[in-house]
Amino acid sequence: MDLKTLIEDGEKVVNASPVHPHPEIVTKSLEHLETLKKKCSKDLHVVLMGEVKSGKSTLLNALAGEVVSPVGITETTAAIINVCYGKKKLAGIRYKNGSFKTGSIESILSELNANKGNSEYFKNCQEVCIWIPEESLREMSVVDTPGLNTLTEFNDKLATEYIQEADVVVWLANGRYPGKLSNMETAEKIHDMGKRMVAVISHVDDFDEKTVTVCIEHLKRNCDGLFEMIFPFAGEMARQAIEEQDSEKIEECGLNKIRDTILRKFSDNSAELQTESILDSLNAVIEKNQEYHLKVLREYEKNLSILKRTKEKLSQRSLEIEQKFQNDFQDWVNLKLLKDKTDQFKRKIDKVSFSLLDGADESLNRKLRPEWNRVFSQQSVNEELSQFISESEAKLFDRWSNALQQVKDAYDAKIAYDGLDIRVTNQLATRSPSSDFDLGPAKAGTILGGILSTGISIYASGLGPYASQITFAGALGSFALPAIGIGTLIGIAKSKKDFNNKKRELKSYIQSVRHDICRQALSENQTRFEEAVHDTCEKIQQGILREYMHHLFKMEDENLIQNMHDEIVVHQKNLQSFIAETPSYQDVTNEVRGEIEQIKKEIQAAAEEEIEKIREESFEHVSDEEIIRRYEAIKRDLEDRLIKTLTDKQVQEDARKVLEGEMHNIEIKFNEMRKKWANERAEKEQMQAKAHELYTDNQELKKLAAELKNQIGDLDLSQGILYTTHEMGDLIKNLYKDAEEYIYMSYPWYKENVISKDLESLETSIRNGVKIYVCYGIMPRKGSNRRFYQSDIDSTINTYTCIQHWKYSFNKIDKTAVKFKPVHSHCKIILCEKYAFLGSQNIMSYRPSKGDSDMRDEITMKYTNPRIIERLRNFILNQKECPDIDRIGKGELR
């Protein structure tokens, strides 16, 4: 497949990200891919990187074969210098506005020096180009960048663009400052871009060979495979050698080795290297997008889980609130409807005196009837119903606020249990356009706090709209004063006793009327009221969920949220498929490459065949001249076959380079054979002396073996008892019971479903005075991108959470009785003062019963020998503490 087409396919995959607006990683990736497309047709591109005074300019001059960049010019001028092949010496300045100024190399460099410190001038400079007729630059260009600590925002961006286009990055580190050799943050970023890198340790002029070796080894330990090769470089000697054109000094300072290696390893294979570099960069871009979208997907699924739990909790609270309101209406009607008004009416009747009633039938009738009509009217009943609706609405909002507070407190408790120092404040949860997917329980509590402080009423209009439906529609005309007037009733009463009896009858009648009105009001409105509460609860619940969905997903429709999740899953799979299907270098180069590779194999086979013939003959009968003659014969034969096989001149040139490299290797082998015969006799003499030494050593080894056998016998390992996987559950419980002084354990992983079964037994042991010492953890593994595997991070987080659970429970009993220690260890040991268990089974994360379908075969040995128990106990105590385990468990280190 054509490289450019492959990159364009990569652009389509990256641009298809469903996350909108596109995050920075997507836009940056598209820019990088555009740069890679431009690079497809360019020669080998070498970029020099390093801090100030790291020797970049000196190395550039060596690669160019002359002084084209005075030492320190890039630092003092903050310029980027690009040196490439030209038929004659020439230099130029490319400005940011697109204009270009040319001149001699001396005049251009003089202009740069004249503008030292002029930030405005260099802010407009894109790059400085220098062309020289140096053969080694025919197929490559070299870029010198300013020191890392002098980069401005503008030329930092330019340097990054050159790095993105680079096939090889040469990293220079000043050997005079060993501490800086491990400052690899920028180098790691370049490596993560998929760039091939070599390192040069400069300024080693005054170092002896041992010091140089120490520097190289120090860099190897700290670079973690960033560099393919590391070279020492005597910078001051190199500068003098270039000025004096001293070939011996050039060889001694290390410049030839660096230059020849770059030209041989990279320039001679520029097509292959360039293709591999582009493919590596392409894969790095897609992998970064995959990592980002995988993180987004995980956060999305975590938020979906939070939404589901919140929805369930709100639904449960809504049902509880509705149940509380079921009896509210009936209780209010029976106990309060018209209660105050009828009681007041009764008191008014009680105040009517016996003397005043005599002969005043019509007058008193007129006085009591208005009160009757006022109390027992539709308006009176509906006013109280309306008041009840208002009070119920306030009560409904209050109950929802309390319910929401309970849900929020549950999230806050979850945060506290996880050991996170997060405080949720009651501030309005504002809607932000940012794409923040990293939420979780903390943000869930924050959203609830915002809803609580805003007021539940904004999510529903309350019971007000239902007030017109909850009314009394009964015919109150049937509840009139008795047909016989009050005055008539009283007039018949011939005594005060009869008078009071009549008043009691009247009050009883009032009570009966109120009862009938309440019964009718209840019959008409009980169901309406419950439906109004239910509808309002539904609206409140939906309003809160919409707010939740907006904050978690920037959407308010569950279908759209699920569609977005599905699109992210598909996009993640497309990125993964693209990476898996990206072809190798051999897949994208032309068909002739296969023919060249075949010739390369034939060269190797022919050389090996000829070398084997020579080996079969006596070295005494094969002269140096004969060896050289055979070497030249192989070379001529292969060159003739090359010309006949490949007709295209350019292909012949590419193949000839391959041939020269292979013939150089064959020549080395022939020279080695010439030296071998001279060394063979000396080696035989050395072997005789060595045989005597080996005999003596062998006698000593026999003595040591006997001593070792005795030591192994002392361990008395035969006393160990073997147990299988399913037997360990009961044995661990017995250990907790048998321990009287102490329990020591060390396991890499702990799981909640396993250790929760041990909690009660361990708490009992602590109460009985047993001391407990717990070691836990193992550092996650790193992948090829030098990041921790996510599965290992998840295991460490789970282990940390379990340990916090234990710590919280045990500290409530006796803080001094328990000690926890994070370590980097794969050991699986548990012991008390009476016996110890040691084996392959991680009892704290895997403890099946016999017959479980997922049971795997593992073994554990039980030892009762006191010396073995003490040695295992000391081993657990002496394990080195590893604080990074807790940092990963807290989410501080990834």
TrEMBL record:
Q: Which residues form a coiled coil?
A: 297-324, 589-616, 656-718
Q: Which InterPro entries match?
A: Dynamin_N, P-loop_NTPase, TRAFAC_Dynamin-like_GTPase
Q: Which UniProt keywords apply?
A: Coiled coil, Membrane, Transmembrane, Transmembrane helix
Q: Which residues form the Dynamin N-terminal domain?
A: 46-202
Segments traversing the membrane? 470-493
The protein's name in its UniProt record: GTPase Era
- Which Pfam families would you find in this protein's record? Dynamin_N
